[in-house]
Amino acid sequence: MSKKKLLVFNIDALCTCDIEQMKTLKHFAPFFERGAYVRVIEPVYPTMTYTCHTSILTGTYVNKHGIPQNEDVKRGKLQSPWFCMKADVKAPTLLDFAREAGYSTCSISWPVSGGADYNFNMPMIVPYNYKGWEPEPYLRDTATKKLMEQYWWKYGRFQMGEGRSLDHYTMSIAPDLLRDFGQPDVMLVKMCDLDSARHMYGVYSEEASEQLRRHNEEFGVLLECVRRYGDYENTNFVIMGDHGQTDVEDVLNMNILLRDKGFIRVNENNELISYDALCHSLGMSAWIELSNPEDKEMYRRVHDFLLSLADDPTIQLAHVFDKETAEKQFGLTGPFDFVIESRRNLSFWEGLKEPDIFKEKIPGHKHIGRGSHGGLPDRVETTTFMAFGPRVKKGAIIEKAKMVDEAPTMARMLGLNMTGTDGKVLEDLIEG
Q1: CA-based nearest residue to 273, from 291, 261, 287, 286
Q2: Pairwise CA distance, residues 393 & 395, whole Å
Q3: Close Cβ partners of 3 (under 8 Å, ≥ 6 residues apart)
Q4: CA–CA gap between residue 193 and residue 30 (Å, rounded)
Q5: I want to staple 374 with a disulfide (CB 3.0 to 4.6 A). Which of 29, 143, 282, 430 is the partner?
Q6: Phi and psi (nearest 5°) for 359?
Q7: Residue 147 pLDDT > 50, yes or no?
Q8: What phi and psi, each to the nearest 5 degrees, are found at residue 212?
Q9: Mean pLDDT, to the nearest integer, of 285-308?
Q10: In percent, how much of the chain has pLDDT > 90?
């Protein structure tokens, strides 16, 4: 029996609402004609890109894999570097299991994969706001050496300057890799621009629809590459998202509220001097950290203040989760004391500048653009999962499943069993 292969095409911010358009697009249509899909995938909490991508590959929640959001937040600091290195992931990934079973592995532009021990690895590691002309140091010791030697000289330009494009870089390397090195047994390709379009223009915008069309054409290139240079008949193809997005109604600068209530002290330049409580934005939710979590009186005061915001018609804070509740309900742990979220489609900001700067949403901003994410898993829109190939049951449709189910299900497509996951194999999708 021939070894089964897996190619995963991850579209950042792919939503359930995209399914009907995808059915009309040439290269996505086969998933509905001869494959299977899960209409609604419930992401992990918070619905942040790096958290979700790590759960997708490990089949676990944050309290096992250790990536609670995009930034590696340190208490007392409003700006922290993003998680970058595979060593930060505390649970084994699908590719780790595959490698140990003798499968060749490949990851292109996947978050939190720097330095991963895969056969081919080109991590998503150049900071998303980097506009300089020397990004190579971010990749030189974190990507696979043979990929840097083969492709950086001609495609590195896509990572440079004001108009740099990670998706152009990804879709230059991925087809060439399939041609030059042959098809890896397990290959991950991650795309970003649908997420960017929704942050910039909104979830249901024409621009988002056009970007989905572009992703359809990009996936078509990979399909043709597998036909030409790989083992098409033995490949299981998967398209998935990492989270949905929600159109933002309003923005709340939470640290201004905390400052006005005396929980934050700033100087004349609005720079942080000291704090009792500090907000970290995750877009549609936020973390509140206390400078001294052992101070029971201050804990009570901050908690009472947060609860009082439920009655403010402009805020309508609906959820104030303490650490214990966050872990019990969502498997979420991290450097916070409370997690908060509004019943409105309200995005949080964490700056210390005056609030009038934030009266208007900033198009394209990750936290306060026209669309955002980072909130509870059931916010509109959620994401989706689809597959076709030799181990996928034709015509199977599952209404709803969990993100942590994806890794063990994809492992089963390869004939592998992942142990230690929080999810389960979606048996109704598996053939044989």
Answers
A1: 291
A2: 6
A3: 103, 185, 234, 415
A4: 23
A5: 282
A6: -65, -30
A7: yes
A8: -60, -35
A9: 98
A10: 90
Rounded Cα–Cα distance for residues 403 and 98 (Å): 19
Confidence of residue 354 (pLDDT cuts 50, 70, 90): low
How many helices and strands, by DSSP H and E, does the chain display?
A: 14, 18
The yes-or-no verdict on residue 15 having pLDDT over 70 is yes
Alpha helices in 263-391 (DSSP H): 296-308, 323-330
State CA 395 to chain mean position distance.
28
Which 8-state DSSP code applies to residue 109?
S
Decide: helix, strand or coil at residue 111: coil
**Burial class of 375 by CB neighbour count within 10 A (0 to 12, 13 to 18, 19+):** buried
Q: Give the span between the Cα atoms of 244 and 40, in whole angstroms.
A: 10
User: What pLDDT band is residue 1 in, cutting at 50, 70 and 90?
Assistant: low
Determine the Cα angle at 191 with ends 74 and 179, to 5°. 125
Longest C-alpha distance within the chain, in Å? 72
* 8 Å CB contact between 406 and 56: yes
379: pLDDT confidence band, cut at 50, 70 and 90? confident
* DSSP β-bridge partners for residue 189: 9, 108
